[in-house]
Write a structure and sequence with these properties.
By secondary structure, this protein is α+β, with helices and mostly antiparallel strands. It has 2 helices and 8 strands; from the N terminus they run αβαβββββββ.
């Protein structure tokens, strides 16, 4: 009988510890990265803003057309896609030729655009891979 009481006490203590660990566990933030909260595609105008995790603009609407970027995102050095299942197409201009080109940014990836390129538009698409 004494052994059963000990086993019950140990079981209760283990259950209490497990419940306490669950109650104090931190919330997951794996979907956010570098100051960009899920489910956004964030733009960083400069390297220093990228390094400090300070996005200057963010987009999150899925569209069938390109959205023209505003002054806080157009020409950004860095773009970060925190979406888990959606790719982001980025439209940009090659400054030396004026040619418009497109780049597909995978979910949970980021891209750097040099000063030779100017990002001008975004289209978020509900597919997780790039063609």
């Amino acid at each position: 009988m004494n052994m059963m009481k000990r086993m019950a006490a140990v079981g209760t203590a283990v259950a209490a510890l497990a419940a306490g660990a669950l109650a104090t566990a931190p919330t997951a933030s794996a979907d956010s990265y570098n100051g960009c909260a899920w489910p956004r595609v964030c733009f960083y105008q400069t390297d220093s803003q990228w390094s400090s995790g300070s996005p200057t603009a963010a987009y999150q609407d899925v569209t069938t057309y390109y959205q023209n970027l505003g002054p806080n995102s157009r020409g950004a050095d860095w773009v970060n896609n925190t979406r888990n299942d959606d790719r982001a197409y980025l439209r940009y201009i090659v400054n030396s030729t004026g040619a418009t080109q497109y780049f597909c940014l995978l979910p949970n990836h980021h891209a750097y655009f040099s000063s030779a390129l100017t990002v001008t538009g975004i289209r978020i698409d509900t597919a997780s891979s790039c063609p």
